Amino acid sequence: MSLVTAINRDRLAALVKREQDSYAANFPRSRAAFDGAGEHLLGGVPMTWMRMWPGGFPVYQAAARGARLSDIDGHELIDFCLGDTGAMAGHSPAPVTEAVARRYTELGGATTMLPTEDAAWVAAELARRFGVSHWSFTLSATDANRWAIRVARQLTRRTKILVFSYCYHGSVDETFIVVGPDGRPVSRAGNVGAPVDPVTTTRVVEFNDPAALERELAHGDVAAVLMEPALTNIGIVLPRDGYLAQVRELTRAAGTLLINDETHTFSAGPGGCTRAWGLDPDMVTIGKSIGGGVPCGAYGLDAGLAERILSDDSADIEDVGGVGGTLAGNALSVAAMRACLGSVLTDAAFAGMTEVAAGYTESVRAVLAAKSVPWSISQLGARAEYRFTPEPPVTGGESAAAADVDLDEYMHLYTLNRGILMTPFHNMALMSPMTTKSDVDAHTAVFTEAVSELLGE
Ligand code: PMP
Known about the structure:
Layout: H1 9-26, H2 28-37, E1 61-65, E2 68-71, E3 76-79, H3 94-107, H4 118-130, E4 134-138, H5 141-156, E5 160-164, E6 177-179, E7 185-187, E8 202-205, H6 210-217, E9 222-227, H7 243-254, E10 257-261, H8 272-276, E11 283-287, E12 297-301, H9 303-311, H10 331-344, H11 347-370, E13 376-380, E14 383-387, H12 396-401, H13 405-416, E15 420-421, E16 428-430, H14 437-454
Parallel strand pairs: 3-15, 5-8, 5-9, 9-10, 10-11
Antiparallel strand pairs: 1-2, 2-3, 4-12, 6-7, 11-12, 13-14, 14-16
């Protein structure tokens, strides 16, 4: 093996420029659609984060099925982004398509303010998978987290929550906080319209640092720790051995509730990290994937908390204090969840997805080793992500420091120009039940070329 090769920045800049030019040439209709959309779409996109796709404009989707997506320029892309987990079940899997068609078309009545029998089935299935017994619905993971935080504050009569530096839990005001360079908490740069400085609502520590957690919980004012059992929104940061047991012990000792946000870590298995690693949270939140692409979310509480919130006289969860969401738990999304959990994201499907992800991880690792590239890759069940740092990061701060926008843009455009869609903003690849080994091989070939060119080979 040759020596570890430093990236030549001039070469990288030239390669990025070349890939940007090919992207513009390869996707002219997407570009024209984007150019024409700014008159009435804020920022020219349906949601402003779509401006972050590399190359200056997003690809416009035409259709998507399984692990493939076609665009309006006529390309067929292998989709490792899968809607950043929203489409972990694959695009429009047949059981969900049928359930949605039946509910919307044959039976009719997508949203009526009335329950359907699917809701209790889904709640029982979520209880089986994640261990907490009582479930309720939202339309997004963000909202599931908001409601979990409210319940935690209500039940503990405490005001603060605690999160981990560089976490992401949706647009939940309390969570936009990081450990600053001097070790003190600061509002995350660029946050928009914060109602109050999050340092007044939130304590923050680095992941994998039990001493810091113990110190912050000792204030006695933390209602809940909201966490992903492994961080997935700043690369993948896996917990060190024994760390999650320490988190559980420390939260219990401090009278603080523990909320596992399994929205992304669901990739670890049919019951997310909670089941895969035998965790015992007080609440679980989830969204994105469980409706097979139909908007939905859910939060679950253990039986004791459920009893307490229902019998708390000062908590009017039926009216004034209800989070609401008129469409939450609507007939269409619970039908989709039932089909998705019952027939698509099954225990057997996870075994296959994890095996394909292991193949992806091994191939990327082999290329990096063969070429002595100082990057690392981490796998979490059906998800894997490489990071531009030789050792997998152990904290969010460390992982954030390894960000490299030029390399990111290069890798994303290189793969996209050759028929492979990666998750934007980082280098995550997710496997659906329809993702195959040959999809992985196609990625390995392109990844190998991208790295070779970067090294000037
Ligand atoms: N929790 C986690 C862990 C997430 O990664 C995300 C979104 N990436 C959310 C919650 C919020 O999901 P949504 O934007 O669908 O509400």
